[in-house]
Amino acid sequence: MADLQDDLPTSSEVGEEDGLPDDPFGEEHASLERAHALLAAHPVADGYSGLPWALRHLPWYDLELGEAAVDTDVPRMREGHVGVLFWSLHLPEGPGDGRATAATLEQLDQMRSVIEAHPEGLRLVRTAGQIIDARNCGRVAVLPGPAHATALDGSLGLLRILHALGLRVLTLAGTAWAGAEGLTRFGEEVVREMNRLGVLADVSGASAATAERVLALSKTPVLCTRSAARALRPHPANLPDATLAALGAAKGLCMVPLTAEQTGPTVHDVACHLDHVRDVAGPECVGLSGTYDSGAAHPRDLADASRYPHLIAELLRRGWSETELALLTWGNVQRVLRSADFTARAAQHRREAPYAKSAELDTP
């Protein structure tokens, strides 16, 4: 590319010889080409997709051929260089109907059906190594989670069952044992058992007290799967600088959502949040969360899963190094998953599975 640019005439030469104006899009095209090249080597690990729920309402679909009714399909993920997709098992209507456990199990079942119906495009994974295998086979790796902690129904046994079915991320917010006052005794046992199993803790939407205690207690990196910078946009799910700094110090990961509500209406706004998280928490603490098919509105030029190169091109123009971008898109998620796997293998040799329930530990 450098050789080609050296051969191009300067702007003064163009004006003198051809009488044509400068090309206002030259830098944009060059950065977009660089973005595609970088993503081909370091694809996107997307921290949150609402696709399973969106597909529930379609009578028929083909994700390998292409599906216009959703934001995410295999052709667009390949165009956007998506290598890993975290499939959310959250309940858009909320867990208040008392069916959180059943609904989460139903979504796990549907997720498996979708993947089995698209074997040429998708592959179910649990570990960082399986993600690499899926990528080498030309498949998009699908990692189950996050799920909402209400699905546990106050039982560590249900946590183990969900993990056995593939769950890798659990959102610790909105339960009696992970509320405004922080973790109860049972909540602390949940975090310890998640560490033992290799299930990652997600504190997006959790109270500051819960996030602080999880960061102090967890032996594995902590995720925020849908959190941007509160200093730039005062959304309740966004993180204040103090929490971002603590997350960075604990080697956790803040996955910035591509939603207009949390980050703003343009690619420029999203890039500003990524700049801020990198500057406050460090380049090893920032990731991406498309939040496609979740019902959220997305910034202009980031309407679906094919548009990641445009965001990376914007970051290149802002001076992000290729090393920083490789961590942002791929490396940080791989590090977090490998750390969780290593910690789980070590913990299972030291700690037997506990069987306490919330009613037993948290009763005065």
From TrEMBL:
<dbReference type="InterPro" id="IPR032466">
    <property type="entry name" value="Metal_Hydrolase"/>
</dbReference>
<dbReference type="Pfam" id="PF01244">
    <property type="entry name" value="Peptidase_M19"/>
</dbReference>
<feature type="region of interest" description="Disordered">
    <location>
        <begin position="1"/>
        <end position="27"/>
    </location>
</feature>
<feature type="compositionally biased region" description="Acidic residues">
    <location>
        <begin position="14"/>
        <end position="25"/>
    </location>
</feature>
<protein>
    <submittedName>
        <fullName>Peptidase M19</fullName>
    </submittedName>
</protein>
<dbReference type="InterPro" id="IPR008257">
    <property type="entry name" value="Pept_M19"/>
</dbReference>
<dbReference type="GO" id="GO:0006508">
    <property type="term" value="P:proteolysis"/>
</dbReference>
<dbReference type="GO" id="GO:0070573">
    <property type="term" value="F:metallodipeptidase activity"/>
</dbReference>
